[in-house]
Specification:
9 helices, globular, two-stranded antiparallel sheet
Length: 183
C-alpha cells in the first residue's frame, strides 16, 4: 500500500475500533487477567521476565472494561476492491481494557509503521502508546507470540523494562515518518 492508502486504512480501523471499544454487559465468563496469569505461552521467556509479568498482573486492576475484538490481526481485517475495511472472526471477543486491542493493532497490523500510527493516533506521545501496548501485551492471550513476531528474540527480554524500551524505540523510531513522506 502507498502511504496514503495506509493512512486511509488506519483511519477506517480507528473508526471501527472506536465503535467497538465501548462498555457493555458481560457476555461471556472470560476474565482476561486470570486468563493471562494462567497462560502457558510465556514459558519461552526468561524466568525473571515471567516472574515480573506475574507480579504485574497480580497487581493489575481492570477498570472501565470495553468490548474488544480480541484477535485483530492482519488475517481478520479485510479490504475490498474499493478500499473499504471489514473486520471478521469475533470468536475471541472479550471485555478488557482498550490496551488489549491496541497491542495487536500497533505491533501486528501496523508493524510500527509511521503512516498507520500517525493516522490512527494523530499527534501521539510514543511513550504513552508504548505503555498502552505494554499493558495490552501482558494481558493478551497471544501477547507472547505478538512480542516474538514483532519485537524479536524472547531470550533478550530479561525483564519488563526491556519490553517497554523495545516498544518505545519501535514507536519513537517511526514518529514523523509519515509527515516527511506524505503523498
Amino acid at each position: 500500500m502507498t502511504d496514503g492508502q495506509k493512512r486511509e486504512f488506519a483511519h477506517q480501523l480507528r473508526t471501527i475500533t472506536d465503535r467497538l471499544n465501548t462498555p457493555c454487559e458481560r457476555f461471556n465468563g472470560h476474565d482476561v487477567v486470570k486468563r493471562a496469569l494462567a497462560c502457558k505461552r510465556w514459558c519461552k521467556f526468561p524466568a525473571s521476565f515471567q516472574a515480573e509479568r506475574h507480579e504485574y498482573l497480580r497487581n493489575y486492576k481492570l477498570t472501565d472494561p470495553v468490548y474488544v475484538h480480541g484477535d485483530l490481526t492482519p488475517d481478520n481485517v479485510l479490504i475490498d476492491a474499493r478500499g473499504q475495511l471489514y473486520i471478521i472472526d469475533f470468536a475471541d471477543a472479550v471485555l478488557a481494557s482498550v490496551e488489549y486491542e491496541l497491542a495487536s493493532i500497533v505491533c501486528q497490523i501496523f508493524s510500527f509503521e509511521g503512516p498507520y500510527l500517525d493516522a490512527y493516533f494523530g499527534e501521539y506521545d510514543a511513550a504513552r502508546v508504548a505503555e498502552q501496548c505494554f499493558v495490552g501485551l501482558l494481558l493478551h492471550e497471544f501477547g507472547a507470540e505478538i512480542i516474538w513476531y514483532s519485537l524479536g528474540e524472547v531470550a533478550e527480554m530479561a525483564n519488563l523494562a526491556v519490553l517497554k524500551e523495545k516498544l518505545h524505540r519501535a514507536l519513537a523510531g517511526n514518529r514523523g515518518f509519515a509527515a516527511s513522506h506524505r503523498c
